[in-house]
Amino acid sequence: MIRFYQLKRTWGLPNLCHSCCKTETYLRMAELPYEVNATLPPMAPKGKLPYIVDGSARMGDSRFIVRYLKKTYGDHLDQQLSTAQIGAGRAMQRLLEEHLYWVTMFTRWEWTRENWETNKTAIFSGIPVLIRDVAAYHTRRGIRKQLWGHGTRRHKPEEIFELGFEDIDAASNFLENKPYLLGETPTSFDATGYGFLVNTLACPIESPVKDYALTKKNLVDYVNRMQTRYYPDLVAA
Ligand SMILES: N[C@@H](CCC(=O)N[C@@H](CS)C(=O)NCC(=O)O)C(=O)O
After folding, report:
1. Looking at ligand 1, which residue's alpha carbon is closest to its atom 6?
2. How far apart are CA 45 and CA 56, in angstroms?
3. Among residues 12, 48, 50, 192, which is most buried (max CB within 10 A)?
């Protein structure tokens, strides 16, 4: 049985960690049996969640995990895709994972005191009181450094949101009126689509980017479609 490590469930989402949500969604899409363990990033092999343990294999990073799972257990989700479709799916995956992600991280860790309090409570509430604030302070400092290194935090909030709007437009225009990112049937790219979009438009972190995403009916319907199909145990987004 695959042991899957991620942050604890909260906010009525599979996970507030985008990549954890993506990976659990992939496990469900691929119909692989797994058990969930809640943990924190310092326990992970690369210091970031998620990670898995499967027999003697222990690995972090959702991209390598999905690649390993496909290789080890087969890949019935992406078999029919053309190379052009895989290229387009990969480009959308990178946009969501490597750009929109940082916009949402800015809203959670930096932008507005209320958002930070909501984020802090969700992540650190299980930690003993004495070390909770210290852990939150140090983690926040680390994430703010990452946001600076990536470049996002060097912009004004309104500039960051403009870039986020462009990502949302791109995702909405890419999806058009298809049920899934690449057509009529779900593919592994939808694990990313759901994991990152649900964490933008259906989490209790308020921002102009969330508000903008909620005006895109096809994205809202998509997130609900994925959630209904793969998380019948959770309420609708
Ligand atoms: N590329 C990684 C990203 C994972 C990631 O950024 N995880 C975050 C939680 S959403 C984390 O563990 N951050 C802790 C840190 O940066 O210290 C993946 O796809 O798994």
Report:
1. 48
2. 14
3. 192
pLDDT by residue (tens digit) across 81-105?
999 999 999 999 999 999 999 999 9
110 inside domain? yes
Judgement on whether residues 115 and 149 belong to the same structural domain of the protein: yes
Distance 51 CA to ligand 1 centre (A): 10
Overall number of domains in the chain: 2
pTM assigned to the model? 0.97
Assess contact for 45 and 59: CB atoms under 8 A: yes
28-37, pLDDT tens digit by residue? 999 999 999 9
- Choice from 9, 27, 48, 102 to test ligand 1 binding pocket (greatest atom count within 8 A of CB): 48
DSSP secondary structure of 100-143: IHHHHHHHHHTS-HHHHHHHHHHHHTTS-HHHHHHHHHHHHHHH
Q: Closest ligand 1 atom to the C-alpha of 143?
A: 16
Are 32 and 88 in a shared domain?
no
